[in-house]
Amino acid sequence: MPRIRVEVDGTAYEDDVEPRLLLVHYLRDRLGKVGTPVGCDTTNCGACTVLMDGLSVKSCSVLAVQADGRDITTVEGLGGDHPMQRAFHEDHALQCGYCTPGMILASIDLLRDNADPSDGEIREGLEGNLCRCTGYQNIVRAVRRAADEMRRPADQRPAGQEVAP
Amino acid sequence: MTAAPEAGAPEVGAPRRRSEDARLVTGRTRWTDNMQPAGTLHVAFLRSPQAHARIVRADAERARERPGVVAAFTGADLADEQGSLPCAWLVTDDIKHPDHPPMAVDEVRYAGEPVACVVARDRYAAFDALEEIDVDYEPLAPVVDMDAAVEDGSPLVHEGLGTNKSYTWVFENGDLDAALRDAPVVLERRYVQQRLIPTAMEPRSVLCVPEGDEFTLYSATQIPHILRLMLATVTGIPEHRLRVVAPDVGGGFGSKLQVYGEEVIALLLARRLGRPVKWTESRSEGNMAVHHGRDQIQRLTLAADEDGRIRGLKVDLLADMGAYLMLVTPGIPILGAFMFNGIYKMDAYSFTCTGVFTTKTPTDAYRGAGRPEATYAIERLMDELAAELDLDPIEVRRRNWIAKEEFPYETVAGLTYDSGNYEAATERALALFEYDKLRAEQADRNERRDPVRLGIGVSTFTEMCGIAPSRVLGSLSYGAGGWEHASVRILPSGKVEVVTGSSAHGQGHETAWAQIAADRLGVPFEDVRVLHGDTAIAPKGMDTYGSRSLAVGGVALYAACDKVVDKARSIAAHLLEAAEQDLEFTGGRFGVRGVAGEGATLQEVALAAFAAHDLPDGLEPSLDSDATFDPDNFSFPHGTHLCAAEVDTETGMVRLRSYVAVDDVGKVVNPLIVEGQVHGGLAQGIAQALYEEAVYDAEGNLTTTTMADYLLPSAADLPEFTTDRTETPATSNPLGVKGVGEAGTIASTPAVVNAIVDALRPFGVSDVPMPCTPERVWRALRGERGERGGEGAEPGAGGGLGSAGGAR
After folding, report:
1. Domain B293-467+633-781, second-level architecture
2. Which spans does this entry mark as compositional bias, Low complexity (chain B) (predicted)?
């Protein structure tokens, strides 16, 4: 079995894995990083989205061996006071919350590409992430709110009120 | 960072940010599949690739020899203990109700039905071993088309029943023959409610942990309480030896209002093997095996006078049950029986529904459950009536709807609508929509022969929520009551635990229930914790579905809080040496009338009750209270939805330009949550109109098994919604609430299709079958209606890649 070395949310892991093991199953079943859920098996829903070296990937369509030497950020690695997390809470951009980890990470990647997206650009940019509860309107609102905040210099942002439990 | 109301301001009505969010936005969740007790074994199911076949041989021996495989079973291996999955709603005395083994034993009746399972050390090993199971099938004739299924000589789904008709259920009121006789306007229409796949984002998952002869079953379910009772009934394991937990549950929309075979099998496997057993479905198997929704053929006859006033309505339904009757399968179309008349007055009504077996996945509740189908029919008919009489669709509705001064109003379907104000909601919607301006633009585009036409769709809907008065359920042969339970515990420190029998899976009960309790008890919102979804913690409940949680469960909480205050009042009077009738309870404090400064807070009373050193003689040392609320009547949310659609007549592409929803859901506990429910409901209703369809080919194979084939709308596919509310309190409960979970879904589907048809009326189009994909719109414009008995034209592709063909 190939041996991989992956950094996940700031912790380094070294493991022997089957070549066919999906990254999402490595995260969930081997590392216990169950904050990243699985919503489909055809890469359509985006619930399993994580950041790999800062770029969003659907972890159900990445093999664990492809993550060798990479840096993975899951929703758990964001802490609790990332502006995107706060915006999702503030704008009621989640209901059941199952799509939320992927939606938040995809939104962060979207803002990396385009720091000031229009509503239409947000909708197009999140096309690969499905939500069945919200009708997306509040998600669009939240991404806009986070974008506004993240464009501001750090010292002008609202004080870091944590959403974390 | 929650938007807390000003100190002392009421919690109810405030847009509280949800307490649930903290764990959901950080990934600190408790989805069933997240749980992995030591020694957990993983289950994989082998599913039938055939729609209908006899199982000649099933052999799992080689699978058992695979490394990592602990056990493998065929349906025959478990035949003696697996029982039959329950149906709790046998709607007629002579309903045909076939056995439904959790794993097929002799015959499979839909593609995706489980036939065998493997239990292994991990999910990969379990799936690998499925390949080693041999099953020989002898194909039988599939039964795919409902119209054909009820004809004499059709192949049968269940040979032993002698028919594919499960039941025929009839409701009649008034003299329909008289209404139809000599009516100046008679409209006859046939509409198809295509089959839908509910598609909660969290796939189903179940984990069963054995502890001696007791079992804890975690499941992604909406109904932990009903599931516990049903598992006990099916397996014979005593109910008090079973604990069912619905941990974080990622949406349901009716699909997790079910007792699934996989849940029963997980329990049986845990009992056999003595180890925790977990099964989590893949989306592809879920699309085949989670119950589907809708799927009706509606034949409708509406009789009206020349001025547009409705005389009567005849509804003749074929409702697809699929292969088996599941928990409430037969009752779903019957819920619609009371809603086909909508908000309108009429003298005569006849409803007949025949439940039909086909070799497809069973149907059951999907968001709205019977009411969207009914609302679609009547709201489409109202637009047809308007077109027939050359009236504005708003005007024809106005001539027929129940006027605000006529409430309470007994409808032709036998319900009493307690309240409503259709005028106010409609006026508000017309103003927000800029109706006249859009009509002018529509006329202009028609005049200019613009290739992109504008259509305006109207839907003035109501629905029955707050399911349900137990006596009504009894009269409809349902197997249980419709009450809900709540209890309130005042802890010694004055903090409050609320226990509710409603089982949330995204609705935000933890926030809304805390708001209700905070107001009733006069304690801070933060001092209230809401517990639910575990039969050991919330032992009594009827769970969450049918927009019932607030209108039934919330009211139970309201009543339980009042009992707490009553108990506290006795103790407070004793502590304050005052008469009970001289006490007033405001802001969480008992004061003595006319004596400033004298008083005791609820926290002080709670501590006194806890210490119990100095209580009145004979008084129980506790403030804890519970209440079970059984509503006298349903609640009836209503609203007016307006949709503007641009239809490209050259490509058939539909673009929703604006959508206005004005809903009246009565009093609102949390407007943020209510708006979110409306948004999500709209998305699902619009998706039925434009995108979604579960498609079977002629052999009975589901061709929409993946999310690539079954088209869920993304953010890019949906418009920005304009939502507003009018507020006519329900009179049937002290909170004045009605329910909001399904409203958007119920109202929006006809609004969208009405808009599309309205755009195409200048071309002689009077219907487009759902989902109104570009190809179907394009074909409708060319007169290829795809109706049965027409030119034989295919109605065109449904939504996704796998949906060529589709309902017709």
Report:
1. 2-Layer Sandwich (3.30)
2. 1-13
Separation between Cα atoms, residue B534 and residue B313, nearest integer Å = 45
Please report where in the chains the tokens 């004979």 appear, as a residue.
B618
Among chain A residues, the shortest Cα distance to B509 is held by A95
Give me A89's structure tokens: 């809470």
Indicate if the pLDDT at residue B662 is higher than 90. yes
State whether residue A101 sits within 8 Å of chain B by CB: yes
User: Residue-wise pLDDT tens for chain A (165 aa)?
Assistant: 999 999 999 999 999 999 999 999 999 999 999 999 999 999 999 999 999 999 999 999 999 999 999 999 999 999 999 999 999 999 999 999 999 999 999 999 999 999 999 999 999 999 999 999 999 999 999 999 999 999 987 767 665 555 544
pLDDT at residue B375 greater than cutoff 90: yes
Say if strands B205-211 and B185-196 run parallel, antiparallel, or are unpaired.
unpaired
User: Does B394 have pLDDT greater than 60?
Assistant: yes
User: Using CA atoms in the order B435, B437, B441, B442, what is the torsion angle rounded to 10 degrees?
Assistant: 20
Residues 6+ apart with CB under 8 A from B545: B222, B223, B252, B254, B257, B365, B369, B467
Q: What is the pLDDT of residue A159?
A: 58
Give the C-alpha separation, B126 to B119, whole Å. Answer: 6
Q: Min CA distance, A69 vs chain B (Å)?
A: 24
Residues from chain B contacting residue A35 (CB–CB below 8 Å) = 26-29
Read off the tokens for B59.
């052999």
| Interface probe with A: pick from B714, B742, B752, most Cβ of A within 10 Å | B714
Of the candidates A16, A19, A13, which has an alpha carbon nearest to the alpha carbon of residue A32?
A: A13
Mind listing the pLDDT tens digit for each residue in B264-288? 999 999 999 999 999 999 999 999 9
Residue with tokens 């209890």: B487
Q: What's the complex ipTM?
A: 0.96
Question: Closest partner residue to B199 among A28, A88, A132, by Cβ?
Answer: A132
Find the closest chain A residue to B249 by CA distance.
Answer: A96
- Name the phi and psi angles at B254, rounded to 5: 100, -25
Could you give the domains of chain A?
3-77 (3.10.20.30), 79-156 (1.10.150.120)
- Min distance B4 CA to chain A CA atoms (Å): 12
CA distance B801 to chain A (A): 13
Instruction: Count other Cβ atoms within 10 Å, centred on residue B66.
Output: 17
Residue the block writes with tokens 């199971």: B133
Q: What pLDDT is stored for residue B799 in this prediction?
A: 53
Q: Are B750 and B379 in contact (CB under 8 A)?
A: yes
Q: Tell me if A90 and B17 make a contact (CB, 8 A cut-off).
A: yes
Q: Tokens standing for B317?
A: 């339904």
Q: Which pair of structure tokens corresponds to residue B585?
A: 């309870």
Q: Output the average pLDDT for chain B.
A: 95
A94 contacts B24? CB cut-off 8 A? yes
- Check if B32-140+203-249+256-289 and B293-467+633-781 are the same fold: no
Q: Which CATH number fits domain B32-140+203-249+256-289: 3.90.1170.50, 1.10.3630.10, 3.50.50.60, 3.60.15.10?
A: 3.90.1170.50
CA gap B781, B785 in Å, rounded: 8
Residue B726 carries which side chain, given as an amino acid letter? T
Give dist(CA B104, CA B78) in Å, integer: 10
CATH class for the region spanning B483-629: alpha beta
Which of B25, B251, B284 is closest, CB to CB, to A96?
B251
Tell me how far CA of residue B748 lies from CA of B151, B249, B644, B743, B773, in angstroms. Answer: 34, 26, 12, 8, 16
Angstroms from A45 CA to nearest CA on chain B? 7
Q: Do A163 and B1 touch (CB under 8 A)?
A: yes
- In terms of Cβ atoms closer than 10 Å to its own Cβ (0-12, 13-18, 19+), residue B406 is exposed
